[in-house]
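Work package 3, deliverable 3.1, input record:
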Amino acid sequence: MNALEFILAGMLAAATPFLLAALGELVVERAGVLNLGVEGLMAFGAVLAFIVVYHGGGHLLSFVAAGLGSAVLSLVFALVALGFRANQVATGLAIGILGQGLSALFGKTYESLTVKGLPKLALPWLSEIPLAGRLFTQDIVVWLSLAATLAIWVMFAYTKVGLVVRATGENPKAAHAIGYSVTAIRFAAVAFGGTMAGFAGAYAAVVYTPLWADGMIAGRGWIAIALVVFGTWLTGRIFLGACLFGAVSLMGLAAQATGLDVPSQVLASLPYLVTIIVLGIISADRRLLKLNGIASLGEPFER
Amino acid sequence: MTAPLLSLRGISKSYGQIHANQGIDLDVAPESIHAVLGENGAGKSTLMKLIYGVEQPDEGTIVWDGEPLNLASPAEARRKGIGMVFQHFSLFETLTVVENIRLVVPGRKADLTERIRTLGRDFGLEVDPLAPVHALSVGERQRVEIIRCLMTKPRLLILDEPTSVLPPQSVDKLFDTLRRLRDGGVSILFISHKLEEIRAICDKATILRAGRVTGHVDPREHDAHDLARLMIGRDMPEPMPAVSQSGGEKRLEIIGLDHRPEDPFAVALSGISLTVRAGEILGIAGISGNGQSELAALISGETVLPREQRDRIYMMGKDVGTLGAAARRQLGFAFVPEDRLGRGAVPEMSLVLNSLLTAHPLGLLRHGLVEKARAKAFTSECIRQYDVRTPGPDVEAGALSGGNLQKFIVGREIMLSPKLLFVAQPTWGVDVGAASAIRRRLVALRNEGMAILVISEELEELFELCDVIQVLHHGTLSPRLETRDTRPEDIGQYMIGAHTPAAPKVLA
Amino acid sequence: MSAFSAPFLPTLVRRERASLAATLLAPPVALAVATVLNLGLYLLIGRDPVAVVYAMLFEPFLSWASFSEVLLKTGPLLLIAQGLAIGFRAKVFNIGAEGQFILGAIFASAIPIWFPQATGQWIWPMMLLLGVLGGALWASITAFWRVRLNANEILVSLMLSLVAAQLLNYLLLGPWKDPNGFNFPQSVMFQYDAMVPVLIAGTRVNVSLLLTLALSIAAWLVMQKSFLGYKLQVGGLAPRAAGYAGFNEGWAIWLSLLIGGGAAGLAGAAEVAGPIGQLQRSISTGYGYAAIIVAYLGGLHPIGIIASALFMAALYIGGDNAMVSANLPIAAVRVFQGSLLLAYLIAIAFVRYRLEWHRPIYRSKP
C-alpha cells in the first residue's frame, strides 16, 4: 500500500473523532454558547467507553455510556455558564480540566490495556473502484458519522428546530421576546454537544486506537473547536476540515512508512501547526467571519 | 357601550424602589384604536409588557374578553389573541422574512410565503418573503413584524412607538393599514408620545404620567396643548432662542467620504460631505439604520480610514482620517455616543472611574497613576452642574437611569471644553425636563462659539436646535438645508430618498 | 414554555450593586463545596476520605519541610497567574502559559547546555532574562495571530503549548540530550553558577520567590492604581467603551500577551535554574493550566492571587502526600482543581446576583 492509498483508506476513520466533536460544538455555538471543554468531555467519554468494552459490555453500550456520561458533564457546564451566567471561557476550561482529571482517575488501572475494535464494512461496488475504493471500506461508526453530518446539515437548512437554534444564537433577546426559552434551548444544545463529544471520545478509545493511554485525546477536542471556526459554522465545510485533519494526522505514519527522515516530533506537531496556520488564514477574512459568525457567541443571556 | 375587549383594574408593578405602574385602569373597546400616551419613563413600556405576558403584575386584575387573564409568557398571550410589535424589532437579520415568520407561525414554508403575499396585498404591507432581513429597510422590517403578528390572528395588536422609525410620508401609509385592520375587527393599542399622531388616528387615549393614569380622553376633542399638559403635568418648555451667527472657522470638514465597512451587515457610505463651523449647530436627520452609526464612528475615530484615503476628514484644520479616537480628542474633539451603557460608560465601573474614560487629561493622572481625589472632585462637579440624580460619585454607572447617565456623559464631555462637540441622539430615553435642559445647554454652548454636530431621529428636536440640517439616507447625505428656510416635509422627502437622484429604490 | 420559568426553580436577579461580602466569601465557600464533593468521589473509588483530607489539606502545613516545598511550588504558580490575570481582566484569554513556560525553560537552559564550563554570577540572572524573552517570544506569535490575523487567541495559544511540548521532546531526545545520561530524555545537570541562590538554608526555596513577590506588588500597582491597568480593564469590561475613549485594542492585546508570556517564561527559567537543575520532560506538572485556576480563584486580583497560589501549591504537595499515604491517584488533584474552579464560578455569581424564588402565579384554572 503506498502513502496515498494508506491516507485514503484511513482518512475517514481518523477524521471521525474530529467530525463528531466538531458537529456537536457546531450546534452548541450556533445556539450562542462557547463550550471550550470539548477536550475534557472527549476524554471522559473515552474512558467510560473503554471501561465498558473492557468489561465485556460491547461497543453499542460503550457509546451509550460515553454519550450519557459526557452529556451529564456538559450539563454541569450548562448549569454554571448558563444557569449562573459565569464566564463561558473559564467554565469551559474548568470542565476541560475536570473531564481530563476524571478520565485519568478512572483510567488509572486500565493504562496500556487493549480491547478489540470494530470490523470494517465494505460498500458493495464502490469499494471495488481502484484507489478511491479504499474510501468505502469503513466501520459502522464512520458511516453513522457521515449520516449525522447529513442530518445536521438538513436540520440547519430546512427544519424548524435548526431555525430556532440559529435564531437563538443570533439574537437571544429577540428569541426570548417571541416566546422561546433561550436557556432551555441552550441547555439542550450543550447536552447535544456533550453527547457528540462523548461519542467522539468513545470512537477514539474503543474503535480507532483501542488501547488505553492517559491523555490519548491529545488535543483533538481543541482541534474540533478550531474546526468549527475553519468551517465558518457551516456543516459541509466542517466535514471537509475534519477530513483534512484526518489526513494530516495520518501523514506522520505515512511519512515514516515511506522512510522520510523527519523527526517524529515534527510530525506529531503537524496537526497543531496546521491548525494555527489555517486559523490565521480563515480569521484574516474578517468579513467572512462576521457574515457567518454567531452574533451572541459566548455572551451570557440576561432578560 | 359594548363590553371592553381588554380591561385592566388597579395594575401595579415595581422594580425595587421604582414604581413603574401604580393602580392603572384601562379599557380597550373592540374594534378601536386606543392610544397610551406618556413621555419617556411614564411606564408605558412596562404596562405593555404586563399585557403581553413578558412580565407579571404585582397587583391588580386583567380581564380579557370577559375572563380573568394571568399570562406567564408572550407565547400564552399570543394563544389568547394578543400580538405585539416592539419598538426594537425582534427580527433575526441572517434569516429570511419567511423564516422569521416561521419561528412564530406554524406551517410549511411554501404556504407561509403565499400567506405573507396575501396579507401584504390586503393590508398594504408588501414585502418580499424570501429576502433576508438584513437587506430590508427599517420600514420594511416593521411591516414584517406586523405581518408576523397578524398571522397569529390577534384580536388585539399592541404597537410600541411604531412611527418613531418611519419618515413622515410612511406614517400615513401605516395609519391606513391600521384603519383597515380595525375595520377588519382587530383592536389596536397604540403607544406614543407624539400628540399629533394620536389625534390623527386614535379613538380613545389613556394618558400616563410617572406610572399613574392622569386621564382617559377622546383625543379628537382635545388640542395638542391639553394633551401635553396631561402628559407632562405642565406646559411644554419654551425653546431657547438661538442667536444667529455665521462665518466662524471650520472645525469639522468632511469631503467626499466613501466608506465600505468591514461588517457585512453595516451600511456603506458614499460621497459624504459636511462642514461644521464655530458657533454653528449642524443636525443630521434621518431614520436610524441609514448609516448613522457608521458615520458617527468615522467622525469619532472609532473607525479609522485606511492610509490610502487622505484628505477626507478634517478637524480643526488637520487631516484626521487616519488618526484614532484619542488623537482626535487631543485636538479638542468630544463625543456623546448613542449607546450609553458599554460605550459612553462602563456599566460595572463607578462614575468616578467613568470620568476617567475621557476626562483623564484634565489633571486626573500623575506619573501614570490615577489621582483618585481629583477624579472624585471632577465627578462631583459634573453631578452637581448637570443635575445627575445619583446617591454619589461611587455608584456604578449601570445603576443610573438612562436619562441620568446621559446627563452625566453629556456633562463629562462638555466639561472637557471641546472646540467641536458631537452628540448622537442627545435625548433618547431622556425625560422631557432633562431633554430640554440638554438642548438649552447645547444652544448656549453654540452661542459661546462651540461647533456642534448633532445626529437625531427626532425632527422636532433638530428644528429646535440646529442652524443647518442635512439628511442621511441609504448612506448618502443631502445638501445643507438652512433650518429657517426648510419645512419638515422637505426633510421628509430626503428621508425617503425622493430627492436623491440616484436613489436605488423608493421606500414608502 | 420552559422548565426554567417553572415555579419551583429560583431565578437570578441582578443586585443593585456588587456585593463585597459575596466577593470575599466566594473562595472559602467554593473550597468547602469542592472538598465535600471530592470526598464523595474518594469514597466512591474506595479511598479513606479522612486520610485523604488530612494528607491533602493539612499535612502540607504541618511540617517546615513540606511547607517549604509548598513555597517552592508557589513561585511558578504565582508568577504565571499574575501575568495571566492581567490579560484575563483585559479579556485576552492566553491559555498557553504552559507552552510559554516551556519556552522560557528552553531559552534559559541554552546557556548551561551550550556553555557548561562557564562560571560567574551573571549566569543565572542572564538565564532568567532569557526565560522572559523566550516566553514573551512564544506569546508574541499568539499576539500577532490575534491582532493582525484576527485569530482566536485561546485556540492559537493552546495549540502552541502542544507544539512547545513536542519541541521540548525533540531537544531532549536529540541535540540537547545528555550524552552520558543513559539515553534518558534529559539534559546535562547545570553548573553551580547556573542555579538561582537558595534563600532559606536547608530548603530548596530560592531567591526567585522574592522576585515573584516583588512582581506581585508591581502587578498590584499596575492593575489597581495605574491608568495603564485602568485602560486594560476598560478593554475587558466594555471593549466598545475602550474604542470610544481611544484606548488601542491591539496594543492592549500585545501588552497582555507579552506580560503573560514573559511571566510564564520567567517561571520556566526559575524552575530549571532552581529546584530541577536541568532541562527535562517533566519540568512542568501542568503549572500553565493550574495557574489559570489560580488567577480566577484569586478573583483576578493581585493580592487574592497570592493567597490562591499558596493554596494551589499546597494542593499539589498534598496530592503527592495523598498518593503516598492514601493511595490516591495523582489525577485526583486535577479533578479537585476543576471542581474547585466550577464551584468558585458559581459562588461569584452571587457578587452580582441574588437568588429569588418564584412567586407562584395564581391562575384562573388550577
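The mean pLDDT of chain A is 93.
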